[in-house]
Amino acid sequence: MIIRIATKEDWGAISNLSRISGYSDWINDTGIEFLESGYTMVAEGEGILGFAKAEDAGDGSMWLSALRVHPSHRRRGIGEDITKFALELAKKRGSKFARMFVEPSNHKSINLVKKLGFEFREDYSIFCGSIDTSGWQLSNLEEDVYVGAGWAFVRLKDYGLSDLSVKEREGVIVIEKDRPNNNAFQTIIISGELKMLSVTNSGYVAVPSKWQDQVAKFLKPFEDFAAASLFELKI
Prior knowledge:
6 helices; 37% strand; nine-stranded mixed beta sheet; Aminopeptidase
């Protein structure tokens, strides 16, 4: 078995593996564009046996996601080998940290990432949709907060505020792009009390679970992936 970076020719096998893996198939909902961001890694033996994605987060970290292993080839160390490959890639890219979300009920994946040295950081609740900010007050951000586009999370001050608007209501701050039909951002890490929540035009929002009651005033839980635990590894 070898592990390598996927090409577009691998999409058919990746799509099929995602479909039969038993997880919510957001990958096929995304389509072949899934391969266009970050690095999709495949484990190849007699066909594609597993895959995962790694994305530079822009703040010196690598975000890992979408780990899938063929149902008939599980418990053979394939997921571990793909993750190790991703960590080596992160080192070569100069990343200081690797981070990932794991569903709290996925005990096998949690045991795997702990075996590789990842440490639990915080539980998050996942919501879907977007907030109508009509009538909200304009606000400013002074804190060093983390936001993300998709599953890649960066410090907001490193990403820039040139095309973003910041609005506030009832202690919740929403960050939006001013341009229409572009995704805004979503919060991943907040220090102190809940002060910020940013949303995508469609999709999901991740917020620390201790603030889920406040967020539930504005959004509905994401049914397919309602909770996630953040794990982090210093490289």
